[in-house]
Design brief:
This protein has helices spanning 2-23, 41-54, 67-75, 88-96, 145-157, 170-178, 189-194, 225-236, 238-246, and strands at 30-37, 58-65, 82-84, 100-110, 112-117, 137-140, 163-167, 184-188, 199-202, 212-219, 250-251. By secondary structure, the protein is of the alpha/beta class. The strands form two sheets. Strands 2-1-3-10-4-11 form a six-stranded mixed beta sheet. A five-stranded mixed beta sheet has the order 7-6-8-5-9.
Length: 252
């Protein structure tokens, strides 16, 4: 009996040691890299947090910039898993360069509004007011989706504001207005909502002439293609729709 007990103890010890030596080792964490238009910052931050919570062991790495800047980086060889653009023109450019995989799908829409400092000190009430003498306006550069949309609505309305600065992304426009470096700026509805403590919105009917579609796609040679597909499904799914709507985006 004593001999049997000793053998059993030795076997038990061996099993414990085997477990400690790697049987219970954690799986390595995986990362899905998402390049997204700057106007998606707040909504994708929230989406990423939810996605990580529902996918243990997965990290979402987000990098925001103007869509045109991100496309140029991709064309120059930058690696990533997913690209979300603020318009179809830049997505088309990425597809033509052969850096996308599969068909891009629109997941949200957005439109412009006029951002003014809190209290609207210049009493701006319309797009035409941006062309008043001495008015200082800031907007996105023409190759950036918010800049292309701004030019569309200005031309359609016959309004020619005095533009003192053109920025590489919509968040930079917003910062200049909030800092008092401009009287007004043309940004997306969603951006003013995210910065409501710094600026306020002046909606204008002409904005409906330049509604932006937001497409998203998996990238060619994605380091984590399975995670990329999973993230795309999440954005297009009910959770994605709820988060995007809460941040002011229209349905895709």
């Amino acid at each position: 009996m004593r001999k049997t007990g000793v053998v059993a103890a030795l076997i038990g010890s061996a099993l414990v040691l085997a477990g400690c030596s790697g049987g219970g080792a954690e799986e390595p964490r995986r990362t899905v890299t998402v390049l997204a238009a700057a106007s998606l910052t707040e909504s994708f931050d929230e989406l990423a947090g939810r996605f990580e919570a529902e996918n243990p062991g997965v990290d979402v790495r987000l990098d925001y910039a103007g869509s045109s800047t991100l496309v140029e980086q991709l064309i120059q060889g930058r690696g990533a898993d997913v690209f979300a653009s603020a318009n179809t023109a830049n997505m088309d450019k990425a597809a033509e360069a052969g850096v996308t995989a599969g068909e891009p799908r629109v997941f949200a829409t957005n439109e412009l509004t006029i951002a003014v400092p809190k209290g609207n000190p210049d009493r701006i009430g319309s797009l035409a007011d941006l062309a008043a003498p001495g008015r200082l306006v800031v907007r996105c550069a023409p190759e950036v989706p918010c800049g292309a949309a701004a030019r569309t609505v200005e031309q359609a309305a016959g309004v020619h504001p005095r533009v003192v600065s053109e920025e590489n992304d919509v968040k930079s426009v917003l910062r200049k207005v909030a800092a008092g470096e401009a009287d007004a700026g043309l940004v997306y509805v969603t951006d003013v909502r995210s910065a409501k403590d710094q600026v306020q919105a002046v909606d204008f009917p002409e904005a409906r002439r330049a509604v932006n579609d937001y497409p998203i796609v998996q990238l060619k040679d994605a380091p984590e293609p399975e995670l990329a597909t999973r993230f795309l499904d999440y954005v297009h799914g009910p959770a994605g729709a709820d988060v995007l709507a809460a941040h002011g985006f229209g349905a895709g």
